[in-house]
Amino acid sequence: MSAAHPTATIIASDLTVFDSGLGHLGLPNVEFQLADARTEWTYHDPFDLIHLRGLSGAFQDWDAIYTQAFAHCKPGGYIEVADADPAADTIAFSPLKLPGSEAEIPALRKYTSALLDAAKAAGYPRDLAHLNTDALAAAGFVDVRVLERTIPIGLWPEDVDEKTLGKMALIAVVEGLEGYALRPLTVHGGYTVEEVKELCGAVREELLGVNGLTAKVRIVTGRRPVSFAQKKVDLLARVMARAKVLQEDVEADE
Fold first, then answer.
1. Which residues of 27-44 are buried (b: 16+ CB within 10 A; e: fewer)?
2. Top-confidence residue, 168 or 231
C-alpha cells in the first residue's frame, strides 16, 4: 500500500509491539501505532480504507468492531476484512493431488482442536462467521461482497504462480504457529509454554513434509454510502477545483 499510494497516509496498528522487520522499514508514509481495537477508536480523521486481516478469535463482539469501522470510514470509503484461520476448519487436502490422509497431519489436527477448545473457554470464537454480508450490512455498509478462494500450502502445485503462492502461504502458516497458539493455549488450554512450542514444532515438521494441503481464504468488502448532501459538497468541490485550473490557464495565456 505504501508503494502503490505514496501520497497516502497509512496507519498500521496492532495490539503488541511490531516485530523488528515491519516496525523499522522506514516507510515515509506509514505510521505504526499500538492500539486495542476492542476499545473506543480515537482516530481523528476518517479513512478511505479500513483493512482488518487475521483477526479471527480476536474479538467477542464483531458487530461493535464493524460499527466503529463505519463511524471512522469516509462516505464512499471501504472496509476490507480477510481471514484464513487454521483453527476455523479451513485447511484440507486438495482434490487435485493424490488423496491425502488425515493420518499424515495428526499434530496439525491436535493443534487446531486445542485452539478451538481454548477459544470456546475464552469466549472468543475462532471461525469465519464474521466474514458475511449480513454483519457488514447491519453496520450500515452497502455493496457488500464476499470473495472466497482456496490457496495451496507448500510447493506442491505445478503452476508457477500457484507454487509461489503456496510457498508464501507455507511461510505465513509456519511462522505464525506460536503466535496463534501461545497465549490461548497457556491461558485457557492447560498447556505450558514448553508444551505449546513442542506441539508447534511437530506441526511445523508435518507442514514441511506433506503435499497437497490447501487453505480457504475469505475476504469480505463493503462501502460506506454517500449521502445526497455529501454528493453535492463533493461535486461543488470538483467544480471549484476545475474552475481554478481554468482560471490559472487563462492567466498563463495572458
1. eeebebeeeebeeeeeee
2. 168
Query: What's the CA gap between 12 and 78, in Å, rounded?
Result: 16
Burial of residue 87, with CB atoms counted within 10 A of its CB: 0-12 exposed, 13-18 middle, 19 or more buried: buried
CA angle 168, 201, 81 (to 5 degrees): 40
C-alpha cell at 242: 476545475
Task: Give start and end residues of each alpha helix (H) in 56-139.
Answer: 62-71, 106-122, 133-139
**Separation in Å, CA 229 to CA 36, 62, 81, 237:** 34, 30, 28, 13
CA distances for 140 relative to 67, 185, 222, angstroms:
8, 36, 9
Tell the residue number behind the cell numbers 453496520, with chain if given: 139
Range with lowest mean pLDDT among 158-167, 189-198, 243-252 = 243-252
Domains of the chain (ranges, CATH numbers) = 36-223 (3.40.50)
Share of the chain above pLDDT 90, in %: 59
Provide CB contacts within 8 A for 149, sequence distance 6+: 216, 217
- The proportion of the chain whose per-residue pLDDT surpasses 70, expressed as a percent, equals 89
Query: Which has the higher per-residue pLDDT, 69 or 32?
Result: 69
**pLDDT of res. 184:** 92
